[in-house]
Amino acid sequence: MGKFDWRYVKLFVLVLVGSVNGGIEGVIKVNYKFSGSERNLRALKAHDEMRHLRILAGIDLPIGGIGRPDSVGLYYAKIGIGTPPNNYYVQVDTGSDIMWVNCITCQECPRRGYHGLELTLYNPRDSLTGKLIVCGNSFCKDIDRGSGSGCSGNTSCTYSQVYGDGSYSRGYFVEDVVQYDQVSGDLQTKSSNGSVIFGCGASQSGDLSSSDEALDGVLGFGKSNSSMLSQLASSGRVTEKFAHCLDSVNGGGIFAIGDVVQPKVNMTPLVPNQPHYNVNMMAVEVGYQFLNLSVDVLMNGENNGVIIDSGTTLAYLPEVIYGPLVKKIFSWQPDLKLRTIHDEYTCFEYSGSVDDGFPQVTFHFENSLSLRVRPHEYLFPYEDLFCIGWQNSGTQSRDKWNLTLFGDLVLSNKLVLYDLENQAIGWTEYNCSSSIELKDEITGSVRLVGAHSLSSGSSLTAQMALTIFFLLVVLLHNYLFNW
Predict the structure, then answer these.
(1) Catalytic residue check, 176
(2) Are 234 and 268 in a shared domain?
(3) Is 439 a domain residue?
């Protein structure tokens, strides 16, 4: 060949680096936090207790995990923050509003988290676009309204987020650029970003600081104006509509922000003046027989209707609904020997097909919207038993909730649409391994958004790509020199 020319290697390097960067920059990746963990019923309930009190043109948010009741339904995303961006792993939470990540001022925050993830402390001074939010900022005034904290002037605007298990995150608000995947074509995305105000966590407690479960923070998809969704919508970057479809068969599913036009979904109005996604339930049907429940019981509970929360794993009913429902279900198998596991789960041995031996349950809502739950969805395996996923919220140890809340037990394998612009929510049974059609609000074009199923190893994609890159450089070097 003659004299070795390093220009070829330089060109090769640029091509490979471009390939690697194109695959990892600006991509929001969601993993299932408890993937591969043994089933732990106590952890399942503890997670739900925490969830109950917390409750972008189109954006594609890849998700991972299994939304089944025999696993803990907690999802996390990898997002980019800052200029230049750093990656942060944050829990995706439809039950809380603000987004926060642990800050450089946090002395007790773990540096490694779930599955050995290397966690990153955010430093606003390291970002060209990062800045502090002071009390005089309109965002801070809205957050502070009614709290009486006395925040004023140019002092730092602080936050305190307390969760149902007693854990908390406390710190101050900052503003910076957050990166996400914007839908650019059928099953295609491009990197985009928007400026978002979020919390910079200075201290935390409970599971938030446990090295076994810790992540960098929380990404809230709640209803208030402080959420990332609402902020991006107010700047005209996205519409206040999003959808998820959790795949309990293959894992992962679909999470998209924008106007879903296919499939068509029947909607029911949200109950006004509620902090969560509440809807009015009109009737409960078990095996084609309606339970004798008054509308007042169904609609006017302590929390005004049913809370729809995709982050909760099980389904919780007040005693007045739970008792008749479970009694009717077990009347189909009167000879079962029931046993209680961990003082709270009703379980039994059963060798046949649960779909053949037990009734389906259908909940009816306003606007003729119904939600059907098959036996294999509300009965989940535990060791050599089956356990019932319905839980009596009136007998829970924490605060006697007595609420009605639907989690992944009933929401899996359904496309669920949240429309904050029209204050409505809806769902339909759907193959969550397929794709949906999202309308671009600017051009009017319709784009396909497909399903994702990310594994816990997906965070190693960049490292693996770089390893392959260096191996190929070595091979190319040897090949050219020995030619």
Answers:
(1) no
(2) no
(3) no
Q: Looking at the structure, tell me whether residues 274 and 396 fall in a common domain.
A: yes
Say how many domains are in the chain: 2
Q: Which of 60, 93, 97, 408 is catalytic?
A: 93
Amino acid at the residue 174: V
| Residue 332 belongs to a domain | yes
Range of the domain at 385: 264-429
Distance CA 19, CA 365 (A): 49
Radius of gyration for the chain, computed over Cα atoms and rounded to the nearest angstrom: 24
CATH number of the domain to which 184 belongs: 2.40.70.10
pLDDT in tens, 39-96: 567 666 666 665 444 333 578 765 654 444 444 445 677 789 999 999 888 877 777 8
Residue in this structure with the two tokens 């612009």, named with its chain if needed:
421
Q: 200 and 77, same structural domain?
A: yes
Reported pTM: 0.78
Determine the angle formed by the axes of helices 461-482 and 6-24, rounding to 10 degrees.
170
How far is the C-alpha of 228 from the C-alpha of 221, rounded, in Å? 7
User: Is the domain of 188 the same as that of 273?
Assistant: no
Residue 218 near residue 168 (C-beta atoms within 8 A) = no
93 is catalytic: yes
pLDDT digits (tens, 9 = 90+) for 118-169: 889 999 999 999 999 999 899 998 887 655 566 877 899 999 887 655 678 8
From the list 207, 216, 259, 309, the catalytic residue is 309
